[in-house]
Amino acid sequence: MTDQRTDSPQHNHQMQQQEHQMQQQDRPTPQQAQQSPEVHPDTPAWLDGEGLHLADDQLKRKISNKPVSASAISGLIDGCPAKFTFTSLLADTVIPKTPDDPRVRGTIFHRACELYYNIAPQERGEHIDFERFEECKLQALDENPDMEDDPGLRAWLESASQRFCSMGPDSTDVTVARYRTDNGTERPATEMKISLHLDGVRRRVFGAIDRLVAASPDDPRTVIVDDFKTGRKASVYSEHMRFADFSYLRQQTLYAMLLEHDTRTFENGWNPIGGRLLFPLAEQVTVHDEGSGQDMQLPMKNGALICLDVKDESHRKRTLEEAARTSDMLDHEYEMNLYEYRPSNLCAWCPLARICPAARISDRENAQQAAAGQPDAATLAPAIVCA
Ligand code: SF4
Hints:
The protein has 387 residues and is an alpha+beta fold. The chain is built from 15 helices and 14 strands. The protein has a domain at 102-331. Strand 10 and strand 11 form a beta hairpin. Helix 4 runs antiparallel to helix 5 (81-89) and helix 7 (102-117) packs across helix 9. The relative contact order is 0.15. This is PD-(D/E)XK nuclease superfamily.
């Protein structure tokens, strides 16, 4: 009689195959996943044991037409697809924006910068004009009448503006490039939108560049890609860091590749020679010391200006591969109508934390507090339910 050990490779392989078959049998077919749960026929989306599903046809169309962007790559590859889909399509319908929301604050600060750098160079002057920046800041606030009187928001914006204006000439006294929009209009390159195809990525790739800076008086094609960041912590990416976060470098590399292929302004595209992250509020920057193998935190007084190499071949290859994977994921998710969970220690900070069956919430006090502060089932119900 053959002694078939239960931990033999053959046995394990058979078990894995059976497990895989059972998982496949349990998975919803695309047809099943197209149907919303009968108990909540009008809800635009629902969660079950597998992930998030969309019931609303308009939302499905948005996924069908969604281009690949830096935030989609981060949300789908680095983060949780269910969370990303909820936050990008549904969260705003049930979670009101508040003046202390970092996204609200960041948007208003970005708008102030956009207004300031849209002013003609001869009018704006060579050096940063504090009074003009203040006017732009107030205009950006005026555009948000629901928020503008909030003292916390006003104090934060004041601090961000002052710190930005004090960052130094490399950050503030720049010549903004000019570009042609899709309809041929020439304008300053702030909030510059580009949407086109990159090799190997099936969907269109989209980027919105905060500020494109002219880098050579002799060649208007030569530029630096700037991005404003409003976080208090910054880091200089190294793959050897303890918490290596490629997302900002990926974003700037993606923008550089889009610029090279953008022929609206120059028939040979742009020549981006670098990227920069401007962190006016940064109080510390983490850098990795290759010699000691340690990460170090450097305190900052006047924010941080971080320069990035957007020509690095390995980063470009990785960026393009991740863009292609994101495109394929969007196709697959749309086809299956399934946006899977990817639980992590960050679940406590996810707006679905209180209804998600896969949420991983640790016992740590800050995680418990964060999870308790997320919207409850009743608040979320008009947008999403747990089936
Ligand atoms: S709680 Fe976690 S697993 Fe669930 S949707 Fe949010 S991030 Fe994803």
